[in-house]
Description:
By secondary structure, this protein is mainly beta. Helices cover 14% and strands 50% of the residues. It has four helices and 15 strands. It has helices at residues 6-21, 25-32, 191-194, 206-215; strands at 35-37, 42-52, 57-75, 78-89, 106-114, 120-130, 142-147, 150-161, 164-175, 178-189, 217-225, 238-246, 249-258, 260-261, 266-267. It has a seven-stranded antiparallel beta sheet. It has a six-stranded antiparallel beta sheet with strand order 1-2-3-4-5-6, with helices on one face. The protein is flat.
Amino acid sequence: MKRFSPTTAAIVCCLLWQTAAAQSIEQILKQHYPQHSAQNQCLLGKSFRYYSGDTPTPVRGDYCFIIDAQQTVNTAQGKMRYILLTGNGIDLKTGEWQTAHVDSGAVGMLVLKARADGGWQIVAANTGMPVGAFGSAPQNWALHQFGPDTWGFINQSSDIHQGYAGSRHVILLPLGNKISMSQITAESDNSGALGECGADMGFDSAAERQDCRSRRETITSRLNIDHGGTTVAGLYPLQLTVNGFSGNKKYRNQIVRIPFDRVAGQYREPKSSPLRGADF
């Protein structure tokens, strides 16, 4: 069997490393989204679409992705490039957009690190995560600093079912070579379902009206990153400022602190949040 000399092996290894390292951002995007739609000028990928049946079973679908936001940040690890893509559901056979209420939108996130040779290497990626409704994802994602050396994207995703409306703060962060998604309820409003709890909404008796009023709620919130707080897993805590009412309870600038959950690998709503468990 023919053997390479140590010198030859070192040269081959070096050449392979240079070839792999000297990738442009476009080349890395093509690796993760190898298919392209010339007609829609987008990258094609797959993501969760909806649940089917009583079990329920997750169904994946095709999505048409475009870059929504990208930014380069100088960190202690070096120069990093954060890229966020949003996807709309599409039927590749017919070319029709998938816009049913049940269809989720999709987002993808890539984190790249600059190489000394001028190329880039992938650090973390997830090409398809479910966010949104009616087959489309929220637009205009913003990049924020979530730790001394960690940056991530944030946005809000809204929905409504039978008059129950609300939205969630969606946070995407790199954790190792994966992307973590956290969802924190931002707003909840059921006035579209309950109205003023009158007969026009089907509440005829005094007991029914009283029960309705005890369930009415309109709650809003503002989310901030507490850059002075104690970090967990290198990530700052969040601070939710809540206003509004739920039944007889009123909230005026109530502060809810949300530390990062190291075990879950995401931010999770604490039991103290008035918005926890809101259904919409």
